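step=encode ok
step=design start
structure_in=
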């Protein structure tokens, strides 16, 4: 399987999970000499040069594989640039006659007025209009997103621009990789299908309790001044939110060893530095 973004967060998690399951992985990378690329090679991945904006390089990579997991990103050059990436990927897949394109998207892409959701919805629409065999894998919020607040957590608080008792559908990156592996094993079921993924829906209070800290609702308005896209996302997550049936997702993929958020925290703290250190805020 060809995996895009294999040196990044999502693509890297998918690539590592597939490699752990002895699934052959070709990792599309911009710099095969980078430390992250070399780490993947050390795990058994074959490195392939490619660029999301270079149709020729993508077509070359697609011509050698039966399936690809494609990721686009708005976080480098914006949502419009992400749509262009998607267009390049789709044209390259069609040119190469790729037998199956699994596209990474986001849950509620077509239901939320969030720029980086809408860009993914536009890419999905482009893909559905082609003859390229496709599947869309649309995860919700990642557990790992809390790692961006490690300093605050170490000081005893979990800051999120959400009401502290609002459920937030989430999934571990590792579990996303396991779902992709399940999709590979069940191709016929997933052709021309879109699946939304969540393993748990803890509130910020639940999340904070699992980490031994206190949940704090921060200002969406203040976030909007710095990052309107993320502010729009958290506004959507506050109401109505993803609306995923977690039990149904778990039942559909019994082969996935799903982790609840609290389980993920416990496992992480058993293998790395704990989230919170004793302070006046969390003693």
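sequence_out=
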């Amino acid at each position: 399987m060809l995996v895009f973004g294999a040196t990044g967060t999502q693509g890297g998690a998918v690539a590592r999970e597939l490699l752990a399951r002895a699934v052959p992985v070709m990792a599309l990378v911009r710099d095969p000499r980078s430390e992250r690329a070399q780490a993947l090679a050390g795990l058994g991945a074959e490195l392939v040069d490619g660029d999301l904006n270079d149709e020729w390089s993508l077509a070359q990579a697609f011509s050698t594989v039966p399936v690809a997991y494609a990721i686009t990103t708005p976080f480098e050059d914006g949502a419009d640039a992400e749509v262009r990436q998607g267009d390049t990927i789709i044209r390259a897949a069609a040119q190469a006659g790729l037998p199956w394109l699994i596209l990474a998207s986001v849950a509620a892409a077509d239901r939320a007025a969030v720029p980086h959701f809408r860009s993914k919805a536009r890419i999905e629409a482009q893909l559905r209009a082609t003859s390229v065999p496709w599947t869309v894998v649309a995860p919700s919020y990642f557990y790992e997103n809390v790692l961006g607040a490690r300093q605050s957590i170490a000081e005893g608080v979990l800051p999120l621009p959400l009401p502290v008792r609002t459920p937030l559908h989430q999934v571990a990156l590792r579990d996303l990789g396991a779902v992709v592996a399940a999709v590979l094993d069940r191709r016929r079921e997933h052709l021309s299908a879109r699946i939304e993924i969540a393993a748990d829906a803890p509130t910020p209070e639940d999340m904070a309790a699992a980490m031994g800290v206190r949940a704090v609702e921060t200002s969406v308005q203040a976030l909007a001044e710095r990052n309107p896209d993320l502010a729009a996302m958290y506004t959507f997550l506050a109401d109505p939110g993803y609306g995923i049936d977690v039990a149904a997702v778990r039942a559909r993929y019994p082969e996935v060893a799903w982790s609840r958020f609290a389980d993920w925290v416990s496992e992480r703290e058993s293998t790395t530095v704990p989230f919170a250190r004793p302070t006046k805020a969390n003693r």
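step=design ok
step=annotate ok -> The first strand starts at residue 2 and ends at 3.
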